[in-house]
Amino acid sequence: MSEENWIEVGSTDSIEEEDLIRFDHQDKTFCVYKLTDGFYATDGICTHEAVHLEDGLVMDDEIECPMHQGIFNIKSGEALSPPACEDLKTYPVKVDNDKIFIKID
Amino acid sequence: MKNNIIILGGGQAGIYAAREIRQIDSKSNIKILGEENLLPYERPPLSKDFFLDKKKEEDLYFHSSDVLKNENIEFENISINKVDFENKKLFAKNDNVYSYDSLLISTGSENKKITLDNNLKNDIYYLRNLEEAKKIKEIVSNKNKITIIGGGFIGLEIASSLSQLQKKVIVIEIGSQLMGRIIPKQIADLVQKTHIEHGNEIILNKQIEKITKKNSDYEILLNDNSLIETDFIIAGIGSTPTVKLFENTNLKLDNGIVTNQFCETSIKDVYAAGDVSNFYHPFYERNMRLESYQHAQNHGICAGKNIAGVKTEYSSIPWMWSDQFNLNLQLTGICDEYDEIIERGNDINNGVIYFFLKNNKIRGACGVGVIGKVGRDIRITSKLSEKNTIVDKQILSDQNLKLNKLMQK
Questions:
Q1: With 0-12 CB in 10 A as exposed, 13-18 as middle and 19+ as buried, what is B237?
Q2: Which of B44, B328, B376 shows the shortest C-beta gap to A57?
């Protein structure tokens, strides 16, 4: 993968701990999370129904969809609780000079 | 020890119980007996995404037949017509006999039917299963003015879908508000406004006196002598637990099968879960019967644990949702035991929530908003309620203050 695939999301202080922000790039939506041990990124739309996870609840390492309470592991994307059964795609994240970047393939 | 475990009822509670048992117990025989010739499937999309062609039949199944095969869970399409609890046997219409060591009853609930005129019983449609959904979907494609009797969740979800299919929809509700059985009036009124804005007609406080068939159309006479002309009728007037099979047995029934907090019925080795069970909820210290997705799933899982020998109390905080137009409505806890109501937000675009408090603790909450706008707060509310947290009412009432500030670490 080339360097260009790293896309700048924003500054590290733009996200509170145990919270997330939505990041739109081209025609896709992502969620970028700040957990106690660092930053993570997933697709921004629930795999169960087309709803933005930005309004969901982050608890420990999990994001819960605000519509039907499907739960995903933020780090692995694994669907943990129905009605979600399809995993959420995750993306690599790096921090450089207090800026967050995600690698979109 | 190898047991024969039979799960009577092939819905959500049944399948989740079966898989939970298998996680704990790799040896016992587990057999689900289902009346529908379909593997367990999700019902919520039937009135919404299935009508709107956003979901197809194959998207509805909880698990493929491979999952059941891998976990050695049998599924049989059979109708049981007699139960002998004393000898632990079930008898099928085709003379098959099933013996069990443990039995889970997860027969669910069934639609109440309109009893006005028996000659019209095939003219009024109801929605509970996939077959009915397919039939309604096919017929309404040629209909234009559709009347829905009953302004509860199912009726309003169908009304929302049909409106999106450009149908003229009339909803007739006998009560003074929509969804009156469990939803607070403040929220119901916001939902009603949205229906009206989309062109649906909502008629409250009216009883149906008579339905008359006129060629292929119908005339509905209401108790104020007004007449509604319509070309298709769907009714959603509530449901009753499916317990006919047990009516002349020793099984204790009272608005469903009476169970304790461990999903145990009045008969040893017989359990009940999901819609059919009127269970004791230790947190609220009362019995309740719930008809919801989350409950069917979690109650099934809890019954599975208990059947497999892991004694587990069921104390989930109730939670349910309804999707209508671009709105998502959610309810958590119980909203009928309170000494104070607090409102959060006043614009449906940002979400509006009513909290029901008793002794400064949240007993329940109900909210509605454009999709995504109330879920997080309702979820936090469930957790606050479960932990019996004394809440700061200032934070509850101010939408600019995040509710997770109230969570104790």
A1: middle
A2: B376
Omega cis (within 30) before A92:
no
Percentage above 90 pLDDT, chain B? 91
* Token representation of residue B278: 């009127």
Residue A84, pLDDT > 80, answer: no
* CATH annotation of B326-406: 3.30.390.30
Residue with tokens 């047990």: B246
Q: Give helix B185-197 / helix B153-164 axis angle, nearest 10°.
A: 20
Instruction: Report residue B120 as tokens.
Output: 């019209």
Taking contacts as CB-CB distances below 8 angstroms, the residues of chain B near A51 are 371-372
Residues 32-91 of A with CB under 8 A from B: 49, 51-52, 54-57, 64-69, 82-83
Give dist(CA B36, CA B131) in Å, integer. 9
What residues are paired with A39 via a beta bridge? A34
CA distance A75 to chain B (A): 20
ipTM of the shown complex? 0.82
Q: Which helix (H) or strand (E) holds B192?
A: helix B185-197
For the residues B121-125, what does the mean pLDDT come to? Answer: 92
Average pLDDT, stretch A35-63? 92
Q: What CATH superfamily is the domain B4-44+59-109+240-307?
A: FAD/NAD(P)-binding domain (3.50.50.60)
The interaxial angle of helices B293-307 and B12-24, nearest 10 deg, is: 30
For residue B350, name the pLDDT band (cuts at 50, 70, 90): very high
Q: What's the whole-number average pLDDT of chain A?
A: 91
User: CA-to-CA distance for B393 and B390, rounded, in angstroms?
Assistant: 9
pLDDT in tens, B320-338: 999 999 999 999 999 988 9
Q: Best interface-test mutation with B: which of A17, A48, A69 has the largest number of B CBs within 10 A?
A: A69
B380–A68 CB contact, under 8 Å: no
Does residue B116 surpass a pLDDT of 90?
no
Q: What is the pLDDT of residues B270-320, one digit of tens each?
A: 999 999 999 999 999 999 999 999 999 999 999 999 999 999 999 999 999
Q: Where are the domains of chain B?
A: 4-44+59-109+240-307, 113-237, 326-406
Nearest to B85 by CA among B241, B248, B215: B248
- Closest partner residue to A64 (CB to CB) among B293, B374, B379 is B379
